[in-house]
Design a protein that fits this description.
The structure holds two protein chains of two kinds. Chain A is built from 24 helices and 20 strands. Chain A is of the alpha/beta class. In chain A, strand 12, helix 14 and strand 13 form a beta-alpha-beta unit. In chain A, helix 2 runs parallel beside helix 8 and helix 13 packs antiparallel against helix 16. Chain B folds into two domains: 74 residues, Alpha-Beta Plaits; 72 residues, ACT-like. Chain A, domain 2 (Alpha-Beta Plaits, 2-Layer Sandwich), CATH 3.30.70.
């Protein structure tokens, strides 16, 4: 046999013979065509045909230690890069282990495509070994899902899945591929998906609606802007800054919006909502016109709904997802459109304004209600974060976990660069930070990536330290160790009669030994004086590093709005 | 009453009902049938929204990839049709039973030794009235189906997939 025959050509024919490829090869070629650079995955019985052909693909595979880690890594990769993240798992428990990670990504509108192996088609529904209905299990945490029954459909399904994941309001999409379909030999042209409904771009808002919004902003005496992750997805940070300066409106951000407005700007008011800054919450409570852009009006933002922006004569709500408009908050101007498009249009249609009285009032609130924490000789988390942020380069990415650490990290944030602060806002998934940081690091090996965790969340996914070392992903993990489930403890202290129930971690691993066991650089910090040296040593280490900071176990987040309270009802740090 | 046109793909009904359940809506009735366009299914839904804004049903269903269109057809006054089956014991007044079986909308399905199985069909209001009359007889069991619906541009050969309500006498 000559070499051309091996490549699929017959010497006796002028035309190349139809390509013979199996489903696994078709899948990998389609992923390559979508520009996939890296897959986070774990092999198992039902996805082995894919792994058989993976070594022949230029796609990098990062072997995770648990499938939840794979989903979070794909999520972190997508948030950091703006591209679609991809994770791969086997059937049954492997596929089900993805669920939390997919929910986390989907909740925060992150484009992730999950590929799962499935038992062979004839055995589906027979309770075969490692069979699970992953389509049913993930239906409410994905934008769409596919179970492929013919390898000829694979190419089209992959392309449609990526399209669905990244367009409109981005989200998670799942492709379930039975093992026999992965092995099915296909000759000739792939099938096409004929959709009866063309992809729907959100219709441009009417000029009338835009003009109404512009009139409200122009007529405002106390304007206010709240911005969310939709601004980052639309890459509209510059437009947000331009509009805020144009109409002289202070800007607050949601947790997911942290970083979409430069924190050092005089108009920046930081985090809004349940654990937002007092001055931001007061500004929302007293503004006469509120523009909410690229965000949901969720309960952590609004707190008691009828106490949200009570003096606002006009609320303008902009979201690319029409279902988010009017879902909880009845804004009088609802615009279903891309955040960037709308901000640009509003800049054009709104005359420049100055509000010196309103700005003075907001600055007075800023002076009267600063972020405060006790100085009691113990290491405070705000001191740790200030040191971390002082050491970070402008391009460094910080991934926060969930709990008190997340709020401290967001309210202490000093970055001016868009897309450098990542966290799980909607789902609030503890254990998110480490694997998501690994995904962000894989997206851009040239940037430094930090993971800020509490010890409670860190131990939920710590096995991925092995992935960090093995894949050469030099993330710097800062553990704020208060020896307990801190946010739960604060809620119990503040809102549940002071009854501390099941929040203490009486057994905490020795994080230095633990890090060393995985091959990480590890160091412990017990006081502020040790912080600088420890962080510098961690940064100087070429591989992953663990910095355990033993913080004040009684450290809390303040301000905080009591459950059932309005934004202006926030409680401040009682000890200052 | 909402008309949902969906692509006729495996699992599409699960996607629609899951979406409604996920959002806390109560699916009161659902008629499914082949629409006039090949590859399209038409779903006529009656949905209770509870405290949520009613337009959320349309907005949330519109997000599903397999959904082609969603329309609120409440104003078009679609036709609703209900069927009930009633089993009546024959140990009561035979004359009264036979008279009731002659009423409009009532049809004898099967005569058994000790009972008669009758079908009652009509609009929901008509069936409610007729069932009220039949319940004065010694009814041993009855089943009330969820309404079928058909309106302009409707479901063609509609079939009920709603829950059954079963009650003893």
């Amino acid at each position: 046999m000559c070499a051309t025959a091996l490549l699929g050509f017959d010497d006796n024919q002028r035309e190349p013979a139809p390509a013979r490829r199996c489903g696994a090869e078709i899948l990998l070629r389609a992923l390559e065509a979508e520009g996939v650079e890296v897959i986070f995955g774990l092999p198992g019985g039902a996805n082995l045909p894919i792994y058989q052909y993976l070594p022949g693909s230029p796609i990098r595979h990062i072997l995770v230690r648990h499938e939840q880690g794979a989903a979070h890594m794909a999520d972190g990769y997508a948030r950091a890069s703006g591209r679609v993240g991809v994770c791969l798992a086997t059937s049954g428990p492997g596929a089900l282990n993805l669920v939390t990670g997919l929910a986390t990504a989907h909740f925060d509108s992150v484009p992730v495509v999950a590929i799962t192996g499935q038992v062979a088609t004839p055995t589906i529904g027979t309770d075969a070994f490692q069979e699970s209905d992953v389509i049913g299990a993930t239906m409410s945490v994905t934008k769409h899902s596919y179970q492929v029954h013919d390898a000829r459909d694979l190419e089209a399904v992959v392309h449609e899945a990526f399209h669905v994941a990244r367009t409109g309001r981005p989200g998670a999409v799942l492709i379930d591929i039975p093992k026999d379909v992965q092995q099915q030999i296909v000759e000739g042209e792939p099938a096409q998906i004929t959709r009866l409904r063309p992809h729907r771009e959100p219709p441009a808002p009417s000029q009338e609606l835009l003009m109404a919004a512009a009139r409200s902003l122009a007529g405002a005496r106390r304007p206010m802007i709240l911005a969310g992750r939709g601004v980052a997805i639309a890459q509209a940070q510059a437009a947000l800054l331009a509009l805020a300066e144009h109409i002289d409106a202070p800007v607050g951000t949601t947790l997911l919006g942290t970083g979409v407005f430069p924190s050092s700007h005089p108009l920046a008011l930081g985090l809004v909502g349940f654990m937002g800054t007092g001055y931001c919450n007061l500004a929302v409570s007293n503004c006469d016109c509120l523009l909410m852009v690229g965000m949901r009006a969720d309960d952590r933002v609004t707190c008691r709904l009828d106490g949200f922006a009570p003096r606002a004569e006009h609320i303008i709500h902009v979201n690319i997802d029409p279902a988010e408009l009017g879902k909880t908050l009845a804004a009088d101007c609802q615009i279903a459109a891309d955040a960037g498009w709308t901000l640009e249009a509003l800049i054009k249609e709104t005359p420049e304004r100055r509000h010196p009285t309103w700005r003075r009032q907001v600055d007075e609130w800023r002076d009267r209600h600063p972020l405060r924490y006790p100085h009691n000789g113990r290491l405070q988390p705000q001191e740790v974060l200030a040191a971390c942020y002082a050491h970070r380069l402008p391009t460094d990415i910080v991934v926060a976990d969930v709990g008190l650490n997340q709020i401290w990290a967001a309210t202490s944030w000093t970055g001016d660069e868009a897309g450098t602060f990542l966290n799980s806002g909607g789902a609030g998934t503890m254990g998110f930070a480490l694997p998501a940081a690994l995904g962000a690091q894989a997206a851009d090996p040239g940037r430094r990536v930090w993971a800020i965790c509490g010890e409670g969340g860190f131990v939920m996914t710590l096995q991925e330290l092995a992935t960090a070392v093995e894949a050469g992903l030099p993330v710097k993990v800062v553990i704020l160790n208060n020896g307990q489930l801190g946010m739960v403890r604060q809620f119990q202290d503040d809102f549940y009669g002071g009854v501390r129930s099941e929040i203490e971690h009486s057994v905490i691993p020795n994080f230095q030994l633990l890090g060393s066991a995985f091959g990480c650089f590890s160091v412990a910090v017990t006081c502020q004086a040790e912080l600088g040296e420890a962080l510098e040593a961690a940064m100087a280490h070429p591989g992953p590093a663990l910095v355990e900071c033993r913080i004040d176990p009684e450290a809390n987040v303040y301000p905080i709005v009591p459950f059932g309270g309005g934004l202006a009802d926030f409680m401040e740090c009682p000890s200052t | 009453m909402i008309l949902v046109r969906v692509e006729d793909r495996s699992g599409v009904l699960q996607r629609v009902t899951n979406c409604l359940a996920r959002r806390g809506f109560h699916l009161l009735s659902c008629s499914v049938g082949q629409g006039p366009k090949p590859g399209l299914l038409c779903l006529w839904l009656r949905v209770g929204t509870g405290p949520q804004p009613p337009d959320q049903v349309i907005k949330q269903l519109s997000k599903l990839i397999d959904v082609v269109s969603v329309e609120d057809r409440t104003e078009t006054d679609p036709m609703e049709w209900v069927t009930a089956l009633v089993e009546i014991r024959r140990d009561g007044d035979e004359m009264e039973l036979e008279a009731a079986l002659q009423e409009p909308g009532v049809q004898v399905v099967r005569r058994l030794k000790d009972s008669v199985l009758a079908a009652v069909a009509g609009t929901p209001e008509q069936v409610e009235v007729r069932l009220g009359q039949l319940r004065r007889l010694p009814v041993s069991d009855w089943v009330l189906g969820r309404p079928l619906a058909l309106g302009e541009g409707g479901a063609g050969q509609a079939a009920a997939v709603g829950n059954r309500q079963v009650s003893g006498s």
